[in-house]
Amino acid sequence: MDPILLAALNSPDWKELQRLSKKSRLSGPEVAEFNRLYRRANKDLSHLQTVAPESDAAVYLSRVVLQARVHFGSVPGSAKSTATRFFGQSLPAALYSLRWYFVGVFVLFTGVAVGTHIWAATTPGLLDYMLPPEAQREIAERGFVAYYRENPSSVFALGVWVNNAWIAVQWVVLGITGIYVINGIIMNAANTGIMAAVMYEAGYAEDFWKFILPHGVPEITCILIAAAAGLKIFTSWIIPRNMTRRQAVAKEGRSLITVAMGLVIFLFLSGLIEGFITPSYMPFGIKMIFGAALTIGIVAYTIALGRPAYLAGLDGDLDEERAGYRTVTVQ
């Protein structure tokens, strides 16, 4: 439809929406009318931005919709409903959307860690080149275990949580660079492989697994989820599909910051395991129950709640009314 004709037909509705947006209180019928007009104005604006983005009608309607959106967003929902939506729909849907990215980064991390371990363990003199023999003995005989036990559990757990949460948020936010996340995966995996080789070479393989597995399984799971989120933002920039690059990155960024917020919570639980369970003297099997339970819980939560929400069209992004319109592009 011609933008001039669209403005002539719908400008009364736009003006009424503008009038309602200026009112501090709305009655029941006015709320219903506001909602109807707002949705219609959004559709009109999307059309105008596609066919005539620089027209006077598009500029005017942009101001009207922005004013209405501010008014719409100034009425907060209850804390309970917000939390229910976040944990029951947004977070699990966003996590589920990362499933194939997670598989990819898991394969990369595991491959590099195992490959580095085999390379370091089977190449004569390589470990001594990387670390002096005295440093290797110190790590194997005292340093590796002491790392978990030399500080009070509460202090250690807090430090681990802050560090891991910071890494996770960085990997999500800086994921658009692509190389930052891939480099982080490779470096962390290589360090894990080298540490395993040091412990195996000195005859302390049992200590390595006893002190890394209970918290390491859920912790690495969370860090790899962050890596998957970052790489999804990167691929949305490279392949924006039916949106502009800016809109594609904004959409994935909003969705995956939701993941970062969720990972802060998951990593807090992992930090409690690392601070209080890993260094304890309880049997290894009991320790593993805690780590396995958290990991299985994250996976079950993602599948049980995330799959239905994802199939229903949710992905962790804001509602269309809050996120704003998008411009459709032709591939």
Notes on the structure:
The protein has 2 domains: 3-73; 79-312, no CATH class. Helices cover 81% and strands 0% of the residues. It has helices spanning 3-21, 28-51, 56-73, 79-96, 99-122, 126-130, 133-149, 153-173, 179-201, 205-238, 245-277, 284-311, 320-323. The two termini are 23 Å apart. 33% of the residues are buried. Mean pLDDT is 87; it is low at 319-331.
What's the mean pLDDT score? 87
Unreliable stretches (pLDDT < 50, length at least 5) are: 319-331
The topology string of helices and strands comes to HHHHHHHHHHHHH
| Proportion of strand residues | under 5%
Please state the structural category: mainly alpha
Q: Count of DSSP helices?
A: 13
Roughly how many Å is the radius of gyration? 26 Å
Transmembrane segments: 100-120, 155-173, 180-200, 212-234, 255-278, 284-304
Organism: Brevibacterium ravenspurgense
Pfam family, one: SpoIIM
Protein name: Stage II sporulation protein M
How do you describe this structure in short?
By secondary structure, the protein is an all-alpha fold. The chain has helices spanning 3-21, 28-51, 56-73, 79-96, 99-122, 126-130, 133-149, 153-173, 179-201, 205-238, 245-277, 284-311, 320-323.
